[in-house]
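tool_log.txt
---
The assistant was asked to compare two proteins side by side. It first ran the structure predictor on the initial sequence, then on the second. Raw inputs and outputs are pasted verbatim so the downstream comparison step can read them without reformatting.
(1)
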Amino acid sequence: MPALQVSVIGSGVEHEARAEQVGRLLAERGVVVVTGGRDEVMAAASRGAKRAGGATIGILPTETRERLNEWVDHVVVTGIGHARNLAVVASGDAVIAVGGRYGTLAEIAFALTLGRRVVVLEPGWAVDGTLRAQTPEEAVRLALEGLP
């Protein structure tokens, strides 16, 4: 069976420290971290995973690898712009949202539509059907709960 994958979504430099913790905690549990492959929360989660010896996947909206963060092991170039948000959350067995703006909100909606467990690390979007976590540790525990 392939390794579990958790998508870490979000944005905002003010959320980077918590996103890095989430990435580290996931990698310490052998989970592959999936992100949108760019900066801020995406780079921080990937950095945390890599520093813990984990693997990362970045799914880019562009037709090239431009703006790819340096902590991505495997890159998917989509050329589909914001529609890549669906691929990011569909690639995870669960989703953790850290901060974010409208793109994150769209990803949360896609993930819930696909039946993925979505954990919002506070403060974050208040969306029915999501789980709420106060700490990175709680977010990772809730995301992995019940997964093989």
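(2)
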Amino acid sequence: RAARSAWLGFGLAGSALGVAGLAAAFLPGVILSLFNSDDPGELWEQTAEIVPGLLWFVAVYSFFDSMNLVFALALRGAGDTRFVSIVTFACGIVLLIVPCWYVVERGYGIHAAWICATVYIAGLALVFLARFLWGSWRSMRVIEPTVIPCEAPA
């Protein structure tokens, strides 16, 4: 039942966030209108120019983040907390912190930083999915059986 619930959760979350992300990517004008300034200036024009491209990162990121959250929580719920914590920490350093530092230091721009963030979330999602499919969580115990204490003879 746990596996079925996780797949159902991913189906719902992946569909909802996938559709929302694609809607944002295909309709950037709607998103921009939500944040439109009464004082449009050069900064707003520059921002409005790059937003449509960035919303494609949001679309991809959102789908993988739904996978990341559902399967990480499924693994944690099954007791595989150490694996989830270690992978989150390691991927954070290897796929997010170091690459983002590098692209900022080199001046590669906002698109490169979004690539780092998207790769990080997709990497986490795929590792958690692989761990879930591997199935080692199925033999973990979260709740131990109740132990009935023995009373000492009087």
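---
observation on (2): Helices lie at 2-26, 28-34, 42-77, 81-106, 110-134. The chain has a mean pLDDT of 89.
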